[in-house]
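Repro:
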Amino acid sequence: MNTDFDVMHKAEVLIEALPYIQRFNRKIIVVKYGGSAMVDEHLKYQVIQDVVLLKLVGFKPIIVHGGGKEISRWLNRVGMESKFINGLRVTDEPTMEIVEMVLNKVNKSLVQLVNGLGSKAVGISGKDGMLLQCKKRLSKGEDIGFVGEITQVNPKIIYDLLEKDFLPIICPIGFDESFQSYNINADDAACAIAQAVKAEKLAFLTDVEGVYRDFNDKNTLISEMTVDEAQDFVDSGSLGGGMLPKLQSCIDAIANGVSRVHILDGRIAHCLLLEIFTNRGIGTAILKSGAERYYTEKAPDGE
């Protein structure tokens, strides 16, 4: 039986969410889904719950997902070695076949979860509707196979799906001028898609809590930073290897029209809702210079 306190607390949570629901009604949000939240089935379900709720309260969410751990698992199952150069998977023709198979399998499993929660999803790759055209990507001058660098995004298929009230779920497989398939980094795909559709928000679900002023001091998590402050962090050389390219991707996305980028810990249950619908948030939000800050801390009454 609920106490009066429990009931009032629930009401307060809903009221706190109201201005964010109003602010972002009918706005596009791109969610880059990856990391541990894709491996843990319970976390996976909670992420999809969050995205479906965003859709039901008026957002226009788009999911762009990876699947690196699942790809490695399948390569191991068929006796193939996973090889990386500078953080990028070396993708020869047999590996590309496995990559495309696994990503499409992951894609349809996410579609199934969304449909099971009463919403309508359509799973596509960057090949559908000629969404993601790319060229061969080199790793510091080295050929690493069928790894693509996006050269053009044709978002028409995304707009068509959103207009018909579908939730697009996109796996990062692209094509070149010869219509050869390429494996694309999911962070890069999410950024390019968010830029092409002028998304209001781009959220990265990762295995880190956000950006810290001092990574060894967990009390220094930065709730909000401007793109200029983020660039200072990149230029300082103080960031760890995994956060550096992600923060650079955030900066590039904002420079190309995305209003706000969030770095969230996908291992935290309902991290999307906590970040988007609460005054403080739980991750790091990166915004344009001069943009309104949302997470201003108010002093208690009487101070």
